[in-house]
Every structure is written in structure tokens, then in C-alpha cells.
Amino acid sequence: MSTPLQVYEPFRAGLPKLGRYWKSLWARRTFIKEYSKSELREQHFDSVFGQLWLVLNPLLLSGVYFILIVIIGGATDSARYAHLTASLFLFYLVSNSLTGGVKSVTAGQRLILNTAFPRIMLPISAVVIAIFKFLPTLIVLVAVKVVLGSPFTLEMLWAIPVLLITIFLALALAIAISCVNVYFRDIASFLPYLTRTLLYLSPILYEASALKSSLKLIETFNPLFPILDSWSRAMVHGQAPQLSSMLEGLAWATGIFFVGTYFFLSREREFAVRL
Amino acid sequence: MGLTYTTSIDKKPTLKSRVKSLGRGTKQTRIVRALDDVNLDVQFGHVLGVIGTNGAGKSSLMRCVAGILPPSQGRIEVYGTVSTLLALGVGFNPSMSGRDNVFLGGLAAGMSREEIANNFEEIAEFSELGDAIDAPMRTYSSGMYARLAFSVAAVVRPDILIIDEALSTGDAKFKEKSLNRVKELRSDDRALILVSHAMQTLRDTCNDVVWLHKGKLVQRGEPNVVIDAYQEFLHLGKSAVIDEDF
User: Fold this and answer.
1) Where are the domains of chain B?
2) How far apart (Å, rounded) are the C-alpha atoms in residues A49 and A51?
């Protein structure tokens, strides 16, 4: 063999050979799935209900907001409760991706220091775990719609592309924040406040149409705003979302993905030294 | 090649000292020269032993060759697939059974599900765990854990295999078994790099031995010659070669 299969030289910020990198990542897809499943299993390992918490969590959350809005708040509009539940579940897909993603690289120190593999696998696994946690909420959501008598229409199928855009955005954010955490560990401590702020700035506790015109800046600079609005229109109201909202959400997801992935891939060789 | 990195030192990790250092904008750092101008090559069919005291740079060298750590100077050319046994149980999840962890560990090492399934019986038999393979690994003793981890890693058949002090796992019987497995892996189309403190193992197994000290290559040659010089250094606490250069 006269040509080296691999050459290792001093780290310089810059992308690795992308073709080979993605091939290597694709070859690890089974490991990503099994690693994510094992991490998820470990989260509820010692509890009585175990994996049942994947369904109990969204059910209980839905129940708490039912008490808040309908019983204490006295709301008679069932659509408000359905909107809040649906939007909150989708929001948690993103926030769980962020929470899992931020520590994915630093928590994977043992793997990183002892095995050569595409490091982007770690934030991807965090998003896969968030998706596993999200899926049971769809069952709860359907049950809520049935109980409330919300319409089931063909336009609800628009929820599929909206969900795909959300997963893309969640992945982009997880990749970006996992890399930032390697250099600035405090971001993990700031994150709960960031996600809480994002929750209040997103159309979850209120509908997008109820936002005052003086606060339109929120709509412009919040990447989740158009996606959550689209999701609510499709899942709760059974209407087709606005194409401009979906494109706006896709643009945000694409922009963050390219910036975050470039930052991650150009610096991942340095992670083992930093950790 | 060389490997140098900077690490920060926080002598007093208290709130007061952190506030003071933030205000001053200073942070104490230390430059670590883990490897310094190390030149070596390993041919297919050879077993290279690496010896040195703690902190000599042995593990750093292995990680550079495996592509885990990028060198700071120089270049490393690798002519084949690399598999590493730098730590046992990488990728394992203690809350899962030994059986599930065989798959996890194998996938972490780069094997496919089919490869692991085809080799599962061999792994289970080699580990000598019996029915315990279906129990959660958190119930295992350290010896059982290490035996299963080694069994998973040893089934991989790469072009270049790097083993970092993993042969000291388990009881005496298993140590002999794992050493025999390493000897089986020696072949004309494979290169082995073995880091160990077990000098007799290195004398019996290696074609060449390299002695590292404080990141520098002190000596390379016949296992008996290099190991004898190293042991003399350890017993007397000095060596003419080391005194001149360090």
C-alpha cells in the first residue's frame, strides 16, 4: 500500500473531506440509533414506571395546563387549550434537543478520547433522543383533539413538513450549541434561562395572531415563531399554514445549520485536546 | 511529530478567586509538551512495544496514531484501518445487559450489527461470563466488566491494532488468555502497537520496543536491550542518555 489511507497533520481550522466524513457518519447510523436508545433507557432506569414516562410526561404536562387554563382560568375556548398543548409539545422537541445537545460533546468525553468517529454523531444522538421523547406526545395530542371535538382535516398533513423543518432546526441548534459548550462551558448554565425566554417569546401561551403590532420584532427574530404558528394552524385548526411562514422557518433552520455545522466540523479535531 | 497543548490551572477554584481573576482578566495556564520530535515507523507484520514511566507520552502517542488527537507538529501517515483498545468498555451502558453492551461496544468500535451478531458466540465464550451476560452490567465485578470489554475489542480484525495497557485486566488466567489472543493477532498483514508495563509480555511478544520519557524517544531496538536499559533507569533513577538530553 503506497498511498496512506489516512494522514494526520496539525490542526488548522477548516473543513474535513466532506464526502469521506458523511460516508463515515452514515456507516455509524446504527450506532447513533442504539446509543440514543440506550441513553433514553438509562434516564428512567431506576424508576417504577420506566419507559412509560415517555407517555406520562406529555400527559401530565397537558393535565397541568388544563387545570391552569380551563379550571383556574375559566377559559371556555377549547381551541386555546389545544393550541397551547400542541405548541408546547413541539417546543419541547426543540428545547430537549438543546438541553441534550449542549452537553453531548463534553459528556461524550470517554468516547471522544478513546475512539475515532465523526463527533457530529453526538449532537445528532441528542436530537434522536428528543424525537423519541416527542413521538408519544402525538398520541396525546390526537387524544386531546378527539376529546375536545377538534376537526380532523386533510390539511393536517401539512404538519409533516412543519415537523421536518422543526427537526432540522433542532438539529442545527444542537450542533451549534454543543460546539459552543466545548469553549464556553457556562452556556450550559445559561441555557435554561434562554429556553424559558424563548418559550415566552414564542406563540405558545398566546396565538400568533394575538401578538401586538408593536411587538412584531419578536416574530422577525425568533426562528421558532413561524414554525409554531404553522404547527398550530395545521394540527389544532386543521388549516393549511402560510407558505411564507414555512419558508421563513426553513430559512432559519438552513442558515443556523450551515453556520453551526461549519463551526463544528472545522473545530471537531480540537475537541479531544479541549476535553 | 510533536504534541503540545495548553491547559489552564485553577489553583483555588473558589468563587472569590474566580471573581478576582475575571476582574484582572488573567488565567494561569501551563504548556504541556506531551510528545517532542518523536519519529518512528511500524511495518505490517511487526509488533511494536511502547514503554515509559507515567506521563511519558505513551497514551498521547497512541491517540495521535489513532487520529483521536491531532499532532501539533509533523505528520502521521497511516496505511490501513486502525482499531484501538485504549480504554475498556467505551460506549458501554452499565444499566443494560452484557449482551446489549456487546452490540453497543462493537458498534462504537466501528463494527456492523451483522459482524457483531456473527461473532457474538465467540465474544461470549471468550469472556467466560456464562449466564451473567444477560444481567445488567452494573451488577458485574470490575473483572467481569473488563473481561467482556476486552472480548468485544479483541474480535475486531483491523490492519493496525493499538492496545494501551488493556492486557492487565482480569485474573491471571484471563491475562494469559488475552495475551494468547494478542499473539494470535500477529500476522504478516497486521501491525500491532502495544503499550504495557508488563515487561515479560513485551519481551515475548514484540519485535521492537520504543522507550519514551517526558515526550521524547529515548531508545528503540531489540526488546531485551531496551527493556533492560529502561529497568536500569528505573532502579538507579538515572541514565546517561536521559541526563544528556533532559
Assistant:
1) 39-245
2) 6
